Amino acid sequence: MRRPTFVILAMATMLAATLSLGEQARSQVTPAPEITEDSNREKILRGWDSLVEGLQDELTPGLEALRDWADMAGPALESFLEEMGPALTEVINNVRDWTQYEAPEILDNGDIIIRRKQDAPPLELPSETEEDGPIDI
């Protein structure tokens, strides 16, 4: 996906360079043609069409590759979410700050663990005697 970014950056640089030329410098290169609203509009539309076509040409291979990956990985991801979804939801709901954890680690036996960082503040777990909901006084 770096290539479209490069194309956009290059186009923006060329536009900035063109705009930075003084009116005098441009008029010395070629005499100014008679300008009408229709001819300007047509030029702008042709330029816009050319830009859109170029972006489509650049983005199409990446989007096709993403579609191919989704077709291949989709069934496996769906199965994973059906089996692990509830447990992952519970983990996500219980972790308040992911910056306090290390990256997941896969052990030799296949277990996956996520360790808290050693410099993380103590974990505050809700006490078992607390009840959810309003308190009557």
Which tags fit this structure?
137 residues; mainly alpha; two-stranded antiparallel sheet; 3 helices; 2 strands; 61% helix
Architecture overview:
The protein has 137 residues and is mainly α. It has a domain at 2-17 and 41-113. Helices cover 61% and strands 3% of the residues. It has a two-stranded antiparallel ribbon with strand order 1-2.
In short:
By secondary structure, this protein is mainly alpha-helical. Helix content is 61%, strand content 3%.
Please write the string of helix (H) and strand (E) elements: HHHEE
Overall number of strands: 2
Shape: elongated
Oligomer: single chain
The largest pleated sheet is described as:
2 strands, antiparallel
Number of helices: 3
Question: What is the element layout, followed by pairings?
Answer:
Blueprint: H1 2-20, H2 23-29, H3 37-94, E1 105-106, E2 112-113
Antiparallel strand pairs: 1-2
